[in-house]
Amino acid sequence: MSKLVALLVALFCCASAGATESYGMPKIDIGKGGECVKDPNWMRKNHMHLLFELRDKTVHEGIRDDKLSLKNCIECHASTKDNNVLGREDSFCEGCHRYEAVKIDCFECHSSKRSSALVQKEH
Amino acid sequence: MNDTNVQRRQFLKTSVGAAAVAIAPGMLLFDMAHGKTEAVSNKVRWGMLIDTANCADGCNDCVNACNKENGLSGGLSPTDSQWIRKIELKDKLTGRELSLPMMCQHCENPPCVDVCPTGASFGRADGIVLVDKHLCIGCRYCMMACPYKARSFVHEALHDQKPDVPRGKGTVESCTMCVHRVDKGLQPACAEACPNKSILFGNLNDPESEISRKIRTVASIQVRADLGLNTGVRYQGL
For chain B, which domains are there? Predict the structure, then answer.
């Protein structure tokens, strides 16, 4: 819990400084990037809540919004070099989670790779 | 048309335009949302009718298609996941032999859901029985409760899962009726792959669907109907 508070405080400080990058923040490979759901600062603070809510809706109610899906997040944010959000120090998910020392267990089950790249590989 | 009316129309047009611009950011989010944004309902009940007379002996196409679609290894050891398997039956008295696929029967009253201590095992409103792996603690009660031996436990850490089919160590899994395909309006992989079209997939709640018309006219049974589970998968010629 204290880690989470620290994370939120850290992120709030970044946000209030009005800068998206400040000293010591990890350099992240954002893949294609761009603003899609909400602005980056909001997403940094709240993506976990959004993912929790959406996963329940998808699994239990079958609501599959193509845009607001983990698969679509990865589609844009996987690195353009290796089509992955994990695996390197600057990978989109792993980079920040390493920096904040928050364990990420989504990808024990979910694929961390860009799905369009996987489809191309199959054919 | 008189002048006042024209002006009135013009005013309405511009104000509607202004309103549209004002709510545009929210609207944009809504407009750009694609996919299935409505929850599944119990107006639909997905089911299957399997024609055992057409199911070829030794054909494994449904099993292979399932393995490929869901990223299963296809191994047959006790620790390998099997979502669908072929069963060979023989009536010793008459010598009649049968071959049929067996998988999760997607019961209306599923025993696996009854025994699940965390609510991970659940039936979707449209009749598909699933495991929410976010909630599954891997206790395997559901595997013991299932009369069809339909569920598997993932014993080892997995890699390279399919983006549409998340699977992971320490959770129970079974046939999902290819829920990710069904939600896209496609058929389950096994039904599509069957060379003899022995697996008929459809909506049991729609009296006009092909499957409903067929189960009205031909004799079909539920496996272990005595348990009163009302399975979604039915067998013809068993």
Answer: 43-236 (3.30.70.20)
